[in-house]
Design a protein that fits this description.
Largest sheet: 2 strands, parallel
Number of strands: 2
Order of helices and strands: HHHEHHEHH
Strand content: under 5%
Oligomer: single chain
Shape: globular
Mean pLDDT: 89
Helix content: 40-55%
Strand order of the largest sheet: 1-2
Structural class: mainly alpha
């Protein structure tokens, strides 16, 4: 990554953080801490890594992102807005009665959201299912997910949620692990 690309990402991350604060202030509620701590992740994914197009949020060959810690929706919304999926000026409507930006991501109302989430620990299962489905379709699209500490303590992520004898689950986890290793390698 060049210095100019790095500076552009840092500026975008700053705008995402400002969006988090604008959204949660407008809502007079929310979880700004979790969103702020994930701002760099959202920024890197939406401004560098993900194959997405704000003009075509449902294009078939797009990469997918599942926010397993749905309570940090304001961070996801700020990244999506700053990437051009919807107007940044909509962020202060977070959690308002008639707003499409509610406290948890909704794939039916928010452009760029690939999975409705909120129940902790379910995002990884959704991401694995998406990855397997895309792989079976022969798609090169990738699937990313972000879990928080609460999601990591829930049943679907805990020991009783894993099915080591289930070949498809193991394949999905292998795909996600390979993607993670690729990201970490730079």
């Amino acid at each position: 990554m060049t210095k100019n690309e790095e500076k552009a990402l840092q500026a975008a991350a700053c705008r995402v953080r400002m969006g988090v604060l604008t959204a949660t202030h407008g809502a007079k509620a929310g979880h700004p801490g979790g969103s702020l701590s994930a701002a760099d992740v959202f920024t890197y994914l939406y401004f560098k890594e993900l194959n997405v197009d704000p003009k075509q949020p449902k294009m078939e060959n797009r990469d997918r992102f599942v926010l397993s810690k749905g309570h940090t929706a304001s961070g996801l919304y700020a990244a999506l807005a700053n990437r051009g999926f919807f107007p940044v000026d909509d962020l202060p409507t977070l959690r308002h009665i008639d707003s499409y930006l509610q406290g948890l991501p909704n794939m039916n109302t928010v452009p760029g959201v690939d999975m409705s989430t909120g129940s902790l620990g379910q995002g990884i299962s959704c991401a694995c299912g998406m990855a397997l489905g895309l792989k079976k379709q022969g798609s090169a699209a990738r699937v990313y997910t972000l879990l928080g500490d609460g999601a990591l303590q829930e049943g679907q992520v805990g020991w009783h949620g894993k099915a080591p004898n289930d070949e498809e689950y193991a394949q999905g986890m292998a795909e996600l692990s390979a993607q993670l290793a690729e990201l970490e390698a730079g």
